[in-house]
């Protein structure tokens, strides 16, 4: 394989939880050809593995010494990290009430022992496919269709999380809004499709300025973008860098009052959050600074 080949898609990871070694081995052998298999012999070690490893599906025994499978599932559903992982019970408990309980707890499926290998494989495949589709839909729901960056919903959620994070750490939180200057005239003169190209370009450039882990670049609204930088201590250069990147691309904009190239203005706040800080208060403060940048002549940033 040459270095330019794309990495092969990772095999889905399945955690097999059963106190009986023979059962674990049988399931592992059944699935190991096209899955990565992890093993756990009891509920406690299953939960520990799930906390530190990304698992795509769990095959879960019910009767085990210590924590039983029902309790393991209940615990999984309590943690944000694991609450959506599909769980299939594989169990000798064949009573209707037990199967009902497992499904009501949120199991994806309930399979009785002794297992029929081909059926287990098919069910595993079906639930992995469903789970993959759900993840894809979730990710589309947080993505802006035009530019591919985060959308407003993702930004709102990330801002809530960032506020909680910096409240714990005591670090500052940087929030900025950028707005394309004289964009209405751009659309009017160059056409809406060219305007769309500009928005894609601006999005792609902003991604370069806020790219530490934990940073987020989002489309805030029509021709407005936002960056979120928890733990940033020096925010002003970031804003200025964004402004320069767009201006130096020298995209012609004959009808701009700033022109003759396309520019953006930006407003930001770098704040210590307290109990009264909300996403709304942060964006209102950033918007106020943006307004100042606009009235002061555009193609500038204010913090
Ligand atoms: P200012 O410098 O004060 O920001 O002026 P402006 O013309 O940029 O501001 P205004 O809010 O009047 O116009 C924003 C324009 O952005 C109007 C709208 O048609 C355009 N717009 C919003 N969303 C999109 C989009 O998805 N694609 C395109 N091409 N244009 C969009
Ligand atoms: Mg057992
Ligand atoms: Mg605007
Ligand atoms: Mg504008």
TrEMBL record:
One of its GO terms (molecular function) is diguanylate cyclase activity. The modification 4-aspartylphosphate is found at residue 61. One of its GO terms (biological process) is negative regulation of bacterial-type flagellum-dependent cell motility. Residues 171-303 form the GGDEF domain. It catalyses: 2 GTP = 3',3'-c-di-GMP + 2 diphosphate. Residues 13-128 form the Response regulatory domain. InterPro entries: CheY-like_superfamily (IPR011006), Diguanylate_Cyclase (IPR050469), GGDEF_dom (IPR000160), Nucleotide_cyclase (IPR029787), Rev_trsase/Diguanyl_cyclase (IPR043128), Sig_transdc_resp-reg_receiver (IPR001789). The keyword Phosphoprotein applies. It is an enzyme of class 2 (transferase). SMART domains: GGDEF, REC. The keyword Phosphoprotein applies. NCBIfam families: GGDEF (TIGR00254). This is diguanylate cyclase. It comes from Falsigemmobacter intermedius.
């Amino acid at each position: 394989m040459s270095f330019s080949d794309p990495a092969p898609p990772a095999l889905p990871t399945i955690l097999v939880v059963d106190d009986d070694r023979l059962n674990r081995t049988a399931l592992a052998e059944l699935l190991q050809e096209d899955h990565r298999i992890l093993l756990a012999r009891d509920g406690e070690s299953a939960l520990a593995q799930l906390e530190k490893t990304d698992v795509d599906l769990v095959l879960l025994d019910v009767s085990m010494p210590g924590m039983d499978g029902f309790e393991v599932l209940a615990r999984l559903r309590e943690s944000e990290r694991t609450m959506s992982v599909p769980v299939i019970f594989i169990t000798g408990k064949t009573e209707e009430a037990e199967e009902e309980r497992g499904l009501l707890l949120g199991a994806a499926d309930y399979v009785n022992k002794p297992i029929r290998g081909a059926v287990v494989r098919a069910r595993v495949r079906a639930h992995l496919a469903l789970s993959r589709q759900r993840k894809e839909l979730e990710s589309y729901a947080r993505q802006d269709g035009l530019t591919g960056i985060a959308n407003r919903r993702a930004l709102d959620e990330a801002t809530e999380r960032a506020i909680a994070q910096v409240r714990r750490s005591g670090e500052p939180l940087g929030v900025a809004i950028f707005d394309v200057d004289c964009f209405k005239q751009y659309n009017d003169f160059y056409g809406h499709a060219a305007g769309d190209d500009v928005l894609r370009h601006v999005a792609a450039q902003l991604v370069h300025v806020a790219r530490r882990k934990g940073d987020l670049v989002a489309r805030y609204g029509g021709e407005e973008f936002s960056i979120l930088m928890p733990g940033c201590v020096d925010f002003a250069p970031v804003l200025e860098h964004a402004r320069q990147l767009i201006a130096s691309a020298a995209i012609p904009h004959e009808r701009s009052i700033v022109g003759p190239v396309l520019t953006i203005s930006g407003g930001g706040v770098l704040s210590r959050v307290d109990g009264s800080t909300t996403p709304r208060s942060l964006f209102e403060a950033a918007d106020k600074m943006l307004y100042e940048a606009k009235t002061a002549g555009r193609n500038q940033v204010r913090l």
